[in-house]
Specification:
With 421 residues, this protein is an alpha+beta fold. It has 2 domains: 2-109, Alpha-Beta Plaits (2-Layer Sandwich), CATH 3.30.70; 115-413, Rossmann fold. The chain has helices spanning 2-19, 35-47, 69-78, 87-98, 129-137, 146-150, 175-178, 182-197, 203-219, 229-239, 248-251, 315-320, 400-410, and strands at 22-25, 52-56, 62-66, 83-85, 105-109, 115-118, 142-144, 159-162, 223-227, 303-306, 327-329, 338-339, 348-353, 358-366, 369-374. The strands form 2 sheets. Strands 6, 7, 8, 9, 10, 11, 12, 13, 14 and 15 form a 10-stranded mixed β-sheet that branches. A hairpin with a 2-residue loop joins strand 14 and strand 15. Helix 2 (35-47) runs antiparallel to helix 3 (69-78) and helix 9 crosses helix 10. The longest helix is centred in the first third of the chain and has 18 residues, at 2-19. The radius of gyration is 23 Å and the shape is globular.
Length: 421
């Protein structure tokens, strides 16, 4: 009798194990209540030294997690939709995905990347979309700035984010509109004091040195993600190494004569053949940005489309474009989008507004590392202005624009495959 009961018990345990072998985190529009927190759950599982499968192009880029009561409870606590799959259901999905006729693939995520955000320590009069979404998704990050970068601390991190930053030393080109604003005066004073403390005579020299360190970090195998003005100002700083492009109100001495002709586009990551904006009163860095060239696009019709890549052959761009829609709402920034003619031929355009001939979302390889540039400031605030209240992501848990940021956060966790294009 005892043997019989034990046998029955073992059979029941076996059945339970077989019938609940995996947790599916659906990422389609209908199946997921909170897409943004779903990335946080996936990151949390990776942080527990457990592997995850990213099901590319399957139900909006769903995640397949190992089953466990702790994981189920965490999903419930965070409000993330999930489905329990049996062994046979899991096998069926993976078989379907592996079919040559399907533009799908399963990519293994192996470890939680260590994340650094490049940001000054004080409060800014604007918000950072990446830190907001990392906080909302409950993904941990460390803040670094000039001292940490120049102190070779970037090697401690797998992923580095740059947001509304100016690497040219022109204080964000805010001089025209905000030179009398207390926050502008204070930021300029703090930046000059930091430069002096670090042994530099000018802020532009610090920013140039920082850009060079970040360049080395990526070439050595790092993952760099930039938004808004950090995108074009970073490449401008690289192209202008050793060239003074700042007017006297920024660095107390004249710019170099004919500095445009001294730019070296071979040193940049993404952009080439651009023209710098010489007017210090104009809120613009160069011809790369399309903000002032979007007169025929209204807010109601401002969308960009994500490109379609082969999941089995081009896993990297496919990962970065995972979403529950191929059409994403546009949003403005100091650098809103990129002139297609300025994007190097070696760089992949992941998202574009074809009507206006602009690239919104681009990706490339530099040395052993990767970079992604994403135009605009806040995916859920169309025209975020200095001093505007921050976006409450609780109101936008299914934001396609914010999903693109989180795709980049998980990208370094993927087991590396050779890219075919």
């Amino acid at each position: 009798m005892v043997k019989s009961l034990l046998s029955t018990l073992f059979i029941l345990v076996g059945v339970l194990q077989v019938s609940a072998s995996a947790i599916l985190i659906p990422m389609d529009a209908e199946g997921q209540k909170d897409h943004l927190k779903a990335y946080g759950i996936t990151y949390w599982v990776l942080s527990k030294q457990q592997k995850v499968q990213w099901l590319l192009n399957y139900r909006g880029g769903s995640f397949l997690l190992p089953d466990g009561e702790v994981i189920r409870k965490e999903c419930q606590i965070r409000g993330v939709s999930f489905e329990i799959l049996s062994d046979s259901q899991t096998e069926g999905i993976l078989n379907e995905i592996s079919s040559p006729s399907k533009n799908q693939d399963a990519v293994i995520l192996e470890k939680a990347p260590k994340i650094a955000v490049y940001s000054p320590k004080g409060n800014q009069p604007w918000d950072d979309a990446v830190t907001m979404v990392l906080t909302y998704a409950e993904i941990p990050y460390v803040t670094v700035y000039d001292e940490e970068v120049l102190g070779d601390k970037l090697a401690l991190y797998d992923w580095l984010h740059l947001h509304h930053e100016d690497f040219t030393g022109q204080y964000g080109k805010f001089y025209g509109a905000y030179r009398a604003a207390p926050w502008y005066i204070e930021q300029k004073k703090e930046a000059e004091a930091l430069a002096e403390r670090m042994g530099f005579s000018k802020v532009s020299e610090v920013k140039s040195a920082v850009a060079e360190k970040i360049r080395e970090y990526v070439i050595g195998g790092g993952f760099m993600f930039a938004m808004c003005s950090a995108t074009d100002s970073f490449d401008i700083a690289l192209s202008a190494k050793g060239v003074d492009i700042c007017e006297p109100m920024f660095d107390n001495d004249p710019s170099d004569a004919n500095y445009q002709g001294k730019l070296n586009f071979d040193r940049t990551f993404a952009f080439t053949d651009f023209t710098l904006e010489r007017n210090p009163l104009k809120y613009e860095f160069s011809s790369i940005d399309m903000t002032s060239k979007r007169g025929n696009i209204s807010k109601e019709y401002d969308y960009f489309s994500l490109m379609d890549f082969s999941a089995k052959w081009d896993a990297v761009p496919t990962m970065l474009c995972q979403n529950h829609t191929a059409l994403v709402k546009g949003f403005m920034g100091q650098t809103t989008s990129f002139m297609r003619e300025a994007v190097k031929s070696t760089v992949l355009v992941l998202g574009e507004n074809k009507q206006n001939g602009e690239a919104r979302y681009i990706h490339g390889v530099k040395g052993k590392g990767f970079f992604t540039f994403y135009g605009g400031h806040d995916p859920e605030d169309y025209q975020h202005r200095v001093g505007d209240p921050k976006t409450e992501l609780e109101l936008h848990p299914n934001s396609p624009g914010y999903r693109l940021i989180l795709n980049n956060v998980l990208f370094p966790a993927a087991r590396k495959k050779k890219q075919k294009t």
